[in-house]
């Protein structure tokens, strides 16, 4: 099948299929006499594997490792589990970082009066705030630690 048919069958765009070939994630497709790429059902199966792994957030490098394990019939499931657990650990770190950002933004939004006056703690923080600044709310209304306005 040609690249368009492989893309449709796998759910992976033709552009990404070319990228995966270029980076060595999948082998170069055979070529027809016309010069067009020719993909097999095995290639499509591999592309679906890659699409599912990308859907779970695995990097191309980690997908390459997973593909190697998938192809290795003497693999140990412990290695696959280790790789998946490391990915979960990284996701948890990213989630924690996003929660910290949300917390900071929520405090800044709560400290902003959002009225006709020009001063805004959000802009003040972006201008002068420390990257690791404690932004805990002070007891007085609208005050946020580290924000002078």
UniProtKB/TrEMBL annotation:
Keyword Transcription included in the entry's annotation: yes
Q: Which UniProt keywords apply?
A: Cytoplasm, DNA-binding, Plasmid, Transcription, Transcription regulation
Locations listed in the record: Cytoplasm
Q: MF terms per GO, please?
A: copper ion binding; DNA binding; DNA-binding transcription factor activity
Single GO BP term = positive regulation of DNA-templated transcription
Classify the source by domain of life: Bacteria
What cellular component GO annotations does this protein have? cytoplasm
Listed NCBIfam families: CueR
Name by which UniProt lists this protein: Transcriptional regulator, MerR family
């Amino acid at each position: 099948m040609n690249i368009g048919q492989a893309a449709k069958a796998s759910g992976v765009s033709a552009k990404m299929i070319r990228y995966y070939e270029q980076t060595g994630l999948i082998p170069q497709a055979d070529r027809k006499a016309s010069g067009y790429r020719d993909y097999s059902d095995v290639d499509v199966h591999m592309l679906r594997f890659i699409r599912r792994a990308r859907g779970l957030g695995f990097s191309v490098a980690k997908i390459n490792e997973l593909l190697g394990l998938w192809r290795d019939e003497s693999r140990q499931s412990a290695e696959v589990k280790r790789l998946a657990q490391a990915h979960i650990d990284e996701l948890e770190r990213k989630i924690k970082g996003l929660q910290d950002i949300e917390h900071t933004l929520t405090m800044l939004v709560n400290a902003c009066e959002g009225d006709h006056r020009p001063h805004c703690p959000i802009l003040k923080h972006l201008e002068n705030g420390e990257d690791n600044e404690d932004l805990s709310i002070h007891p007085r209304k609208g005050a946020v630690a580290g924000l002078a306005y």
